[in-house]
Amino acid sequence: MTAPAPAVPLPVTAPAVRPYQSYVYAYPHKTAYEPLPGRPALRDLWRGERKDALSLYLHIPFCEVRCGFCNLFTRIGAPDGLTGRYLDALDRQAAAVREALDDGADKAGEADKTDKTDEAGETGTGPVRFANAAFGGGTPTFLTADELNRLCDIAEHRMGADLRAIPLSVEASPATATADRLAVLAERGTTRLSIGVQSFVDEEARAAVRPQRRADVEAALGRIRDARIPVLNIDLIYGIDGQTPASWRTSLDAALAWQPEELYLYPLYVRPLTGLARRTAHTDRAWDEQRLDLYRRGRDHLLAQGYEQVSMRMFRRAGAAPQGPDDHACQTDGMIGLGCGARSYTSALHYSFDYAVDMGEIRRIIDDWTATPDFGRAVHGRYVTGDEARRRHLLQSLLQAQGMPVADYRDRFGTGPHEDFPAELAAFADRGWLHDGGAGPLLRLTPEGLAHSDALGPELFSPAVRAAMAAYEPK
Ligand code: SF4
């Protein structure tokens, strides 16, 4: 093994801003969602929306174990035929959602008419088409091969997504990435398989409460490559107890040996009610420094190995074709989320079902959801209009390494980001986080700005979203 690459030296003075505050993968976060007054009907929410480039997401909230760092909406195991009942409910939900989408949409043969007015005077909505699909979790491959076939049938036959013609991304764990499941996924059109490895060092995996053996992980990666799914993504975590620059390099090199088209490097967070939160209280600056150091080493190593940085977490091998959603939600296209923990987005409303981290609460919510007879209404969510839409656009564009063309923002909103967010952008420029001090036609983060994505993002949250998140009681 070669010696670890030298990292960029740490700043002489400690950063004034804590770098690891919140992973902003969607804005607003689900903890800012609230019960929706009147539970609006989906057909009303989607009437008038463009539907010709929708994203489809199917959520499978089951895992074999609960990793110590995980606060995703998922439960351990699925006793007494629960997966079958869950798929039954998913099927009912898909039928209800598709009916709502079709209500008022153009019929086949009118595909080119996207903005017509119907007899009732309401704005037409164009055809219903899906541009990409993803199965996430939890662990979608917790399902058996037959159940995965059924999941694909729901996406294709109920929702009308042509899975073999669009990018389809699926998450898996090493133990569930079995040859029979992978064969089904490959045959049904999966273009990207994402596997959570976290660490190739067995002691670190144990420390993160994700017990696994490296030999089993390597075998799973071999099966995934044998299945010839075009894009392999490997998730790794830095900041684990006992992890060193050398052991981090061991994991990076073990992952690189598989030449994955994508790699995600995640900083470890210890969040309320997770397994690690019960064991440790990691809030000190030394841990911040460890994570920043490992991040910089990881980033520099991947760049030197021919990967390009897409965002703070995401790296793509040079020349690899993107086959799944990038590390951001599209700014303007709608999303249909099916399943108990999935979010859906219209242009004005983000909605989902109830959310929890505690295992007992998650079980209760899943049981209630699988018994739901009527999926025709949105029950929990948050409106994202006006100022919130501007924040979301800026936030999610700025966190991409390629940055945000100022003209795109102005075209969409009629004002510039500096007019709308003068104090925030001035603060980012003062800290050296913006190229050209933010003065150019492209608002783009410097390497240090990208390194501080998890501090920068939360600074763009609105006071109302902050208040809602602060009022949320973890359960
Ligand atoms: S396998 Fe993934 S979703 Fe499941 S508990 Fe672990 S990190 Fe969470």
Task: Please give a structural write-up.
The chain is of the alpha/beta class and about 475 residues long. It has 2 domains: about 270 residues, pyruvate-formate lyase- activating enzyme; about 90 residues, Arc Repressor Mutant, subunit A. The radius of gyration is 22 Å and the shape is globular. The N and C termini lie far apart (about 45 Å). The relative contact order is 0.16. The N terminus is likely disordered.
Q: Keywords for this structure?
A:
2 domains; disordered N terminus; Arc Repressor Mutant, subunit A; binds iron/sulfur cluster; 475 residues; alpha/beta; 9-stranded mixed beta sheet; pyruvate-formate lyase- activating enzyme
Short description:
This protein has 475 residues and is α/β, with parallel strands linked by helices. Helices cover 35% and strands 15% of the residues.
CA-based shape: globular
Q: What's the number of domains?
A: 2
Number of strands: 17
Which CATH architecture of the largest domain would you pick? Answer: Alpha-Beta Horseshoe
Widest beta sheet: strand line-up: 10-11-9-8-7-6-5-2-12
Number of helices, counting only DSSP H or I runs of 4 residues or more: 16
- Structural class by sheet pairing and helices: alpha/beta
Mean pLDDT: 89
Rg (CA only): 22 Å
Cα-to-Cα separation, first versus last residue: 45 Å
What kind of assembly state do the chains in view correspond to? single chain
CATH class of the largest domain: Alpha Beta
Low-confidence stretches: 1-14, 107-124
Q: CATH topology of the largest domain, what is it called?
A: pyruvate-formate lyase- activating enzyme
Q: What ligand species are in this complex?
A: iron/sulfur cluster
Question: CATH superfamily assignment of the largest domain?
Answer: tm_1862 like domain
What percent strand? 15-25%
Q: Indicate the percent of residues in helices.
A: 25-40%
Largest sheet: 9 strands, mixed
Domain Radical SAM core: 48-308
Protein name: Heme chaperone HemW
Region (Disordered): 102-128
Organism: Streptomyces bambusae
